[in-house]
Amino acid sequence: MYEIRLHHELAAQGFAPSELARLVRSGELTRPRRGAYALSPPGADDGAAHRRLVAATMRQLCDEAVASHVSAAVLHGLPTWTDQLDRAHVTRDRSGGGKHLHNLQVHGVPLAESEVTTLDGIRVTNLARTVLDLACAWSLERSVAAADAALRAGLPAGELLNTIEAAVGRRGVVRARCVGEIADRRSESPGESFSRVRFWRWGLPTPTPQYVVVDAAGRFVARGDFGWPELGTIGEFDGDSKYGVLLKPGQTVQMAVLEEKRREERMRELGWQVVRWTWSDLAHGTELVDRLEAAFRRGRTAAPHLRIR
After folding, report:
1. What are the 10-residue block averages of pLDDT along the chain, 309 residues in total?
2. Is 73 within 8 Å of 130 (Cβ atoms)?
3. Contact 141, 193 (CB under 8 A)
């Protein structure tokens, strides 16, 4: 992952403290934490900085420590949030809680060797145990986003449920069981995962993720983020990357917006109601609930005439 050198190793090679300070100022070295240096340029995002912090931290700890929680999520490529990346998280197989240190959170929780894997030379909790740890600590929305991503990455749903059930008595396991029940590999982004949890909290009907819309002849028209076929409604979450990361080769943002508009028009022509929302709408749900319920009332009338699959 990152080539890490500890202070005493560099000192043994003849590097004086003043020289190390100069190399850090020039950017030739970075110092993820006290006493550890990375022989690589700083990453372009918070995730890269956290991976560097984890690599440096693990070099300074004994072999018993295992990267876990948000640090394991970063290493596995699961969704994380910048407000939780300020310290590395490790678990040691013991009871009695944990402790906070500068740039480090140590968790004292029983950990079986079968729940440990290795990524880039670092011992880290496997996907199922990582989701369990996050679900016991994070909100339901964030935990489901991580669980959905883990399922998309290949984690069998049965393994996740078994790992959660084996944690009987652990603080937060009730929420973890709820995460296991709600998790769905069909959600393709954290925004879609958040949406599903908010719909559940708000008492709205459960949608079908990645619903396929077809015309009267059964030909493919579009795939919506969410579908309520019995209510004649399609839901679309518009995240920050909707017209960026998902661009097709040679496609501009303007072309993508026009294509999306035509796609939506085609669904409306067939009789579907289409409701779109953003992160802001999820944070302030009253207006979104009103829009969805209004669409459901209109769509319920059209639903019997739609081609539903």
Report:
1. 75 81 82 80 75 91 91 97 93 82 90 95 97 97 98 98 95 96 96 97 96 92 95 90 54 70 90 95 93 96 74
2. yes
3. yes
CA dist., res. 54 & res. 47, Å (int): 10
Q: Which amino acid, 38?
A: A
Q: Which tokens is 177 given?
A: 């069981």
Domain definitions of the chain by residue range:
4-182, 190-305
Query: Cα angle vertex 274, ends 268, 278, to 5°?
Result: 145
- Does domain 190-305 fall into CATH 3.40.960? yes
The one-letter amino acid at 124: V
Q: How far apart are CA 14 and CA 31, in angstroms?
A: 18
Q: For the chain, what is the total number of helices (H) and then of strands (E)?
A: 12, 13
With helix as H, strand as E and coil as C, how does 241-271 read? CCCCCCCCCCCCHHHHHHHHHHHHHHHHHCC
Distances (CA, A) of 61 to 3, 104, 140, 155: 16, 11, 31, 29
Residue type, 162: N
CA nearest neighbour of 188 among 242, 231, 136, 233: 242
Q: What is the pTM of this model?
A: 0.87
Kindly report the CA angle at 118 between 178 and 60, in degrees rounded to 5? Answer: 105
242 contact partners, CB below 8 Å, separation of at least 6: 260
